[in-house]
Design goal:
homotetramer; alpha/beta; Rossmann fold; Dihydrodipicolinate Reductase, domain 2; 2 domains; nine-stranded mixed beta sheet; six-stranded parallel beta sheet; 10 helices; 17 strands; 33% helix
Chain lengths: 370, 370, 370, 370
Amino acid sequence: MQDIGVGLIGTGYMGKCHALAWNAVKPVFGDVPTIRLAHLAETDDELARTRADEFGFERASGDWRALIADPAVDVVSITTPNRFHAEMAIAALQAGKHVWCEKPMAPKPEDAEAMLAAVRASGKVAILGYNYIQNPAIRHIRALLDEGALGTVNHLRLEMDEDFMADPDMPFMYRHEASSGWGALDDFGVHTLSLVSTLLGPVARVMCDMAKPYETRITADDGRRAVEVHDIATVLVRLEGGASGVIALNRSAWGRKGRLAIQIFGSKGSIVYDQERMNEFQLYSTADRASEQGFRTVLTAPHHAPYDRFVPAPGHGLGFNDLKIIECRQLIGRMRGEPAAAIGFEEGIGIERTVDAMARSFREGRWVDV
Amino acid sequence: MQDIGVGLIGTGYMGKCHALAWNAVKPVFGDVPTIRLAHLAETDDELARTRADEFGFERASGDWRALIADPAVDVVSITTPNRFHAEMAIAALQAGKHVWCEKPMAPKPEDAEAMLAAVRASGKVAILGYNYIQNPAIRHIRALLDEGALGTVNHLRLEMDEDFMADPDMPFMYRHEASSGWGALDDFGVHTLSLVSTLLGPVARVMCDMAKPYETRITADDGRRAVEVHDIATVLVRLEGGASGVIALNRSAWGRKGRLAIQIFGSKGSIVYDQERMNEFQLYSTADRASEQGFRTVLTAPHHAPYDRFVPAPGHGLGFNDLKIIECRQLIGRMRGEPAAAIGFEEGIGIERTVDAMARSFREGRWVDV
Amino acid sequence: MQDIGVGLIGTGYMGKCHALAWNAVKPVFGDVPTIRLAHLAETDDELARTRADEFGFERASGDWRALIADPAVDVVSITTPNRFHAEMAIAALQAGKHVWCEKPMAPKPEDAEAMLAAVRASGKVAILGYNYIQNPAIRHIRALLDEGALGTVNHLRLEMDEDFMADPDMPFMYRHEASSGWGALDDFGVHTLSLVSTLLGPVARVMCDMAKPYETRITADDGRRAVEVHDIATVLVRLEGGASGVIALNRSAWGRKGRLAIQIFGSKGSIVYDQERMNEFQLYSTADRASEQGFRTVLTAPHHAPYDRFVPAPGHGLGFNDLKIIECRQLIGRMRGEPAAAIGFEEGIGIERTVDAMARSFREGRWVDV
Amino acid sequence: MQDIGVGLIGTGYMGKCHALAWNAVKPVFGDVPTIRLAHLAETDDELARTRADEFGFERASGDWRALIADPAVDVVSITTPNRFHAEMAIAALQAGKHVWCEKPMAPKPEDAEAMLAAVRASGKVAILGYNYIQNPAIRHIRALLDEGALGTVNHLRLEMDEDFMADPDMPFMYRHEASSGWGALDDFGVHTLSLVSTLLGPVARVMCDMAKPYETRITADDGRRAVEVHDIATVLVRLEGGASGVIALNRSAWGRKGRLAIQIFGSKGSIVYDQERMNEFQLYSTADRASEQGFRTVLTAPHHAPYDRFVPAPGHGLGFNDLKIIECRQLIGRMRGEPAAAIGFEEGIGIERTVDAMARSFREGRWVDV
């Protein structure tokens, strides 16, 4: 395979994360082509130039269309606000580029469908930025489930909680408007669904409740405005495989910073994981002698690929940004036609349809089939 | 107040727990009348005699009616299977005895109502064995909520999980029959509701799902019989006070032995607790300096009444049986007309009505008002 | 065996703990004779009468010698300050009573030796109040070590930390005088040595450092007085069995309330325990598959005798006072000539000799053989 | 400042870690010059070429002297086995390069002294690879200590434990020979001393014990050979500031993978940290209200610089390799004459002298002044 020419649109939280991943993927993994950081686009030329310098990109543009037109670019990282995803991804695919787009696909279902149509028409690769599934701990949990370490899974609980919306004195902002989405449901729900999908398969039925911790928020003119989104969502779920469960989401959970807690119960054991301690998972196995059964805290280690590509010593710990490097390696694998654990547009649209079913369930106060 | 003459019916798991509490309540608390262990009843004379000797009771009967007729008995501990509660409690109250009855009140709502009517008619005290609310940690959490340490509570999650039904090879038994109740819902649900009620007040609306981890179980004749109860129940709830939440119950959760996990989120902080580590709770407060905010692990200590009656040193730990001693002290307080933190039949019937609403919600697949 | 007549001298922290144990031992264990609470002694008649009433004792005396002379007393619980232990224990043994004496034996080595001589001359049973070794978790750890679960033990670390001396503004008191002992070394050291002795056998050599967190403390007249004891002690140890290790003790460790942390390392695994979470221990075993090795958190359960005598359900938790009930059962067993896990005067004097060796090591700044 | 031309010698565990840091330091921090990956040296041309390609270096040599002679190189990363450090570092400094050398400096004290002399003569910057001190959690602990959050520190405990030498069936290898050093003492001791030095200042006196978990190991010819190093070392310490403490090191501690546990006790509170959970620390403060005092688990966050350069969201987690990126940023700062938290040769030699004092203490069985 030839060198890979990379284009990056957007340099915020996730844009920087992509930039770090593109810089590191070859030193970490070795077995990939040379990565050329070809072109970076931002909202204006100056910012683009500054970030291109920092992140090591050759060219810089204040217009993302210039990037997509650039023949030096083979793959485009799209890290702009969600409402731009569809237009950019479709343009990139039509220009013959591969696409690495941050999640979720698009606020409007029809846009997501158009993105899927575009990738199918293009013959190119398009994956979404579901980084949590790339954790070696999560991958190993998947392997344990596959080998039957828990027997038949019959119940699961997922919680995703942060506290960036917890302060009642935070002023009203665009993320409190209905146009920005449902709130916790799309913001966090898609992450939890990426994990359910990866570990246990598709969701069949949902029953959703949503709540607002604060009905109004202060505005710039010292008035108060009604909050239009729900920072809390709790969803009863039934999986196609038969297991029951619950997904609980809260963006106003004081003290939770990056909690993404998973509990999986099966006929032979249980597994527990929390992203706030992302370098460990807990396994309870009934294969252990009865008088010493207990949840084992397993620290991720070279046993759990591709941890070994980062550190040869066990228990030394990966970080949040490392997950993006692994995701980047999956993208490259898929570009080379190899099997790769990543969520493409096809699977991604399934996640977003599930979120839509949850929202409908809430509106209608009843169980909804996905 | 005169001596207290105690009658104990039943000497299984909870019967022994009551016996230990009656033996210990005066040495622990000091400020109570002399406790006379007057009469113990079991299913036959010989077992009654043996247990009376072990537990220190003066008289023993194979007929519980003899115990209730005994003028030396002032208060009756009822620790028999749930289906006997109503008959015994009503008889005891009609005989002018106080009643300490294990939870839940009765499998049939009409029986529970009859128990309530009996206590109202008697003018006596009747409380239920909701021991978890007696933990000094729980009481202190209540005090923190009362003083506004969390601001306005807007969300809660409760989980109660054990694994005594987790083994798929466990044979079919009476607890798998529909006549024994709903399964996790009444077995565990009432405990979680006692905590919700104590900490946050009544539940207004519920939406319940129930599930069976194993559809059938093996029978004595090597056949298989359909399991009629649900070992898993998950319930979306709305409290009268406005908070949203979820209650998740699982009797087949491998590795969970006595988990009763509480998460309470408010506008100023959060509290987390787990009965498996019953001597600590976690507090997150936004009053702490931002750069050192975090969940504090507070070990129960003499600060948290009545811990000091057990041990004068902090962090030395109470046990499960100690909670029953505190409950016993509450009963005596109520018998003396003092305010006491305990769940009487009136509040208890509210808990059971809530469980019934959950069951109806599951059957009808919709939200139900309590 | 006939009834057991109990005498209790002292009703402070440990006196109450003994009283609770004597009240509970028969209801908990069943298989013991009837316990008669015969006689209680305190420093004056009135206090003795009050406590006897609370704790359920028949007679009360302001003079402990009356208790020892009482023929109704078969066994004497001695829970007075350490400096009284020798006189009382010797008198009790000479009067033909069994003795249950709180630890340590005596501040002066010659007194401890006299206590040992007395018990040998008496033919009676005398045990010391080393309660932490009675935890079912500790007993199970011992069983695991005996069966070779860790292979050959080669290293250990023990820490015992509380914070009752941590406040620099606490006034000078008798426990800061040299006459009260060494400080952390005798106060905490003996507890850790009871565990080393129980789990791993005798200590062969020691190298001790001691330190004062506060050189002086305020006095009642607003002056300051030099502290004569050491609230911190750290001791390098070598066991007779060959393992190396360290024992670290701190009575001024802010935040530690009842920490008694044990780490044991062997050729096949490791065990970790902390008394602040006394209902669990951690086991790491190389017999587990490599990719899932980790410390298992094992909750104590009916598998771990005699937990089942307290609660039939796993993971429901014992408390600090329950350990004394188990110790009491051991005492009764030894009185009946049964094997019993308890520390008698012979083993106890070994512990105190080890503490003396530690103190000498500190004074002389060198390794000392025990 | 001009571009920085980087040379890297060695591409093993730490060599790759340096390469990742050099690739990432500008994208992460932004405020540094352009980094040119100029020259990579390995033991032969082919390996050098392969690694240069993976890590993004322009030139590759099988001879490290060619790298040092290369005028395009401004700073040399030295990540070879310890015995080569002195020769390479001195050559690089004499050639006018800055030096980033992995710890420890050199097995022989005279070599370390020569390295120090070389850096002094050169006027260049030379720092050592003590990465653990770069953790934002550790830096914040340092800030808390500086502002007096713990009052006066009076006691500390450090433990560093891994299990790569724990298997008794591991064959004899060069690291078991005396020529490779003391064992745990130099391998782990230097890391713990870098933390003591950073957080609390220099060590004044030491009393060391060392032990061998396994006296012999199997050899290739099925014989057994005596192990010459000590995989366990435990050291009593006194700091110049007056605090007492202990440093415990174990390379054969089954189950410990990257444990580096710190406990610091002061007159107003305590701090606890463990590298296995490197994204959190525990703070106990007596400034909290008494009834809610407890150890707070603080997750690292943008409050704790330079966490924010990696992730803008709190509690999302850094990894082991990220610490090296921070260290690299410190090196660049120091090259620019800015204050920078890093351990240079001067401070590094103090660490190694302390290790030597520990070794002498063990040989002589007595306290040794550093």
